[in-house]
TrEMBL record:
Residues 26-370 form the Leucine-binding protein domain. Gene3D superfamilies: 3.40.50.2300. Keywords: Amino-acid transport, Signal, Transport. Belongs to the leucine-binding protein family. This is Branched-chain amino acid transport system substrate-binding protein. Residues 1-22 form the signal peptide. The lineage of its organism: Bacteria, Pseudomonadati, Pseudomonadota, Betaproteobacteria, Burkholderiales. It comes from Roseateles asaccharophilus. The keyword Transport applies. It comes from the Bacteria. It holds the Pfam family Peripla_BP_6. The keyword Transport applies.
Length: 384
């Protein structure tokens, strides 16, 4: 009896082992700055990827008739272009089936060639510089609107809605910061507004006294900053110290939950207006709200900004594999390119011929104090 039982147990174990061994592993790469000044944004992105993969594995994914296990390979590029291409090559060498990232335009653009040469699809959840999808690579996609839309919309908003009479522009000279500032300036001028000064800094700077003092003499009523929250926070503090009470505008790089902390309580309610490259409203907004609640429960922290877009990007990649019946990049890439009306938590996703999202929405936000006197993002409007 014991011998028979051992035989049965052994047979079951062998069957389970064989099933586990036959289960295909699909590798999804993710790259973001999980170290450095904007590590809080990189970690936010990575958590969005982990959440998507864990949920998909829990539901069970079948590709080409085989049940697969999704595996996340996460790399840190520290927001540095050279480290970004090295991370991209590492994922290529690991034979990932697809990549979500990078966060910054400055890292996403050079990395896109590495992925293109290897034929591996890349979806950025946050790179907004137009050049990202203008190199003719068939493997390059993004799920957010670009700087032409984002910067231009903010420029028109500054001139028309805020009725800015003297608008100053500062950028951090990165691919993202300079790109969005250029488009903002075009938007201001196109709407009949006046830019009274253009200054620049860098993405590691902490002292802005010289450029702010120069601008103060021109009495700006609106200051636009092209860059990230790690620089915007200290800049807001120093504006306060110098008595510059202008409205402060920026793109999605400053539109984070961390900005009030980085500004150390110096932001006035409603002073900051930022745009996030994405947006849902009405009944569709419930999906985003539900995502934020699940994210908070899972990671015990609030969404910074891009995690929902990473989450959608992972799901779009996997949906294309399922539809193509293959995780082979060469086989599912044509299906990915034809993604139409995918219903994500960030809204509907359809790619155009360049890999850009069609009819990408923008959401304008400001920051206001809640009952606990903590400043939180508050939606102003969704713009298409």
């Amino acid at each position: 009896m014991q011998v028979k039982l051992n035989v049965v147990v052994g047979a079951v174990a062998a069957l389970l082992c064989g099933t586990a061994m036959s289960q295909e592993v699909v590798k999804i790469g993710h790259v973001g700055p999980t170290s450095g000044q904007i590590a809080h944004l990189g970690k936010d992105n990575e958590m969005g990827a982990r959440m998507a993969i864990e949920e998909l594995n829990a539901k069970g994914v079948t590709i080409g008739g085989k049940k697969v296990k999704l595996e996340l390979l996460a790399e840190d590029d520290a927001g540095d272009p050279k480290q970004g291409t090295a991370a991209a090559q590492k994922l290529v060498d690991a034979k990932v089936n697809g990549v979500v990232g990078h966060l910054n335009s400055g890292t996403s653009i050079p990395a896109s060639k590495v992925y293109s040469d290897a034929g591996i699809p890349q979806i950025s959840p946050s790179a907004t510089n137009p050049k990202f999808t203008r190199n003719g690579y068939k493997t390059t996609f993004r799920v957010v609107a670009d700087d032409v839309h984002l910067g231009g919309t903010l420029g028109r908003y500054a001139a028309k809605d805020l009725k800015g009479q003297s608008i100053a522009v500062i950028d951090d000279r990165t691919a993202y910061g300079q790109g969005v500032a250029d488009e903002f300036e075009k938007g201001v001028k196109g709407a009949g507004g006046k830019v009274i000064g253009r200054e620049f800094t860098n993405d590691k700077a902490t002292d802005f006294t010289a450029i702010l003092t120069s601008l103060k003499g021109k009495k700006p009523d609106v200051v636009f900053f092209g860059g990230m929250d790690a620089v915007a926070g200290p800049m807001l503090r120093q504006m306060k110290q110098l008595g510059i009470n202008a409205k402060f505008l920026g793109g999605d790089g400053i539109c984070t939950g961390e900005l009030p902390k980085l500004a150390a309580g110096t932001m006035a309610d409603g002073q900051v207006v930022c745009a996030e490259a994405g947006g849902v409203e009405g009944q569709a907004k419930k999906g985003m709200d539900d995502f934020r609640a699940k994210f908070k429960t899972k990671f015990n922290t609030e969404v910074q900004i891009y995690a929902p877009y990473v989450y959608d990007a992972v799901n779009v990649l996997v949906a294309a594999m399922v539809k193509a019946g293959s995780s082979d990049p060469a086989k599912y890439l044509p299906v990915l390119a034809k993604t139409t009306d995918y219903k994500g938590v960030t809204g509907s996703i359809t790619f155009d011929e360049k890999g850009d999202i069609k009819n990408g929405a923008l959401t304008l936000y400001t920051y206001k104090s809640d009952a606990k006197k903590e400043q939180k993002k508050e939606q102003i409007s969704v713009v298409r």
